[in-house]
């Protein structure tokens, strides 16, 4: 090495060989003693566009001194944009000592930035300065700033006034908050527009088909498509802003959550509309006259729809929770103790699981269906609602009887419309032995044909003597109706009309007969109770109270 070079080295880093010789003396608040202090100080100064501090954190020794002040601020602005968009610093891992062991004694790699030619290291280097060794961004990193900015920056950012580059909240500067707000508004507007276009085009396409499923699909998508499109557009638009990794991750998390919820709501709406569509199709078909088949299909659809709805909600909730790292860690830790926990949960939820399985079994075997007439717990009513855990029976007096679904599988109950709602009803009367049974039978027929008001279905009717006692004769009137409700009303009508007819007959209603036996007068007997003398005509008929 020539002697003059050694002389310059002995004189120290002055002139062109001094660190950033073209810059004035660094302010007192510029701390470059450790890698962590340099990284934090540079981010603060560069975000504030502080021309007095930001260039001092860069190694500008490869450019002429007269350009270092102007170029230093420009490169600092560009570097902070690149770092905000591509590199998130973990200060817990950045050195906090003036010099570290080994390679870290003079070099600290903050991270890598992806480029078209490969990853570029962002390096802090410990160099000699007038006041002693300091940490600055290395000359190689400074030389690559323009190339990195071309790939990860935008010339528009250099045209904005400095007020847009302050960091008012979280990790985003003012221009990034403004851009994110515009992206969200644009995504919502485009989502609504996209939904309207999709529904209109879909409606025209559906009009060309005879199937009604496409109409139900479009109706279920109304209100959900906009959220899906808005979520996709928001996530894509945020990437155009090249937000810092935490901010981009938060936007992606929100967009995914909105899409998951919108998709779940779409599926729930479609399931509801599909069940109604199938019921309407069956009701309009020739098989719609089969009431039992319609009720069975309605019951199956109601229970299976609830099962699928529960599955959709569980899957959607799982997808939402699995987005969070804390939930995933909890899930992994729970799997480690799955043996004991699974056994405990299985024992605790045994009754709940059996109830759930009972609901599924009921939908398949169908011992009852929605609309069936049943008698359970000594109550008569109609099955109004069937869920996975209980059944609601609407009692005749408008009370609701809520019964666990397992009771219908474990205990007997009466189902008056299991096969068909047609039913036979009886009306029993107690009459005198001298009642004209044939006349009562004729009167019953007249009542059914002329005064039943449509309650009698015309299939069956009859009158029989079903029992005798020492005082009365028991008649049973048999009538048929299309359902249990009409049977009750017709039985009451038959009783009322037949009693009115019997009251008009001389020997219609039962009589209580008593007979007195002639006995001697009391003075003719030596002992015994005194009795009235028997007279002619003592036989009497005593009518019971009506």
Automatic annotation (TrEMBL):
GO terms for molecular function: mechanosensitive monoatomic ion channel activity. Pfam families: MS_channel_2nd. InterPro entries: LSM_dom_sf, MscS_beta-dom_sf, MscS_channel_2nd. The chain crosses the membrane at residues 169-190, 253-271, 303-324. GO terms for cellular component: membrane. Keywords: Membrane, Transmembrane, Transmembrane helix. Gene3D superfamilies: 1.10.287.1260, 2.30.30.60. It is found in: Membrane. Residues 352-418 form the Mechanosensitive ion channel MscS domain. This is Mechanosensitive ion channel. It comes from Corallococcus exercitus.
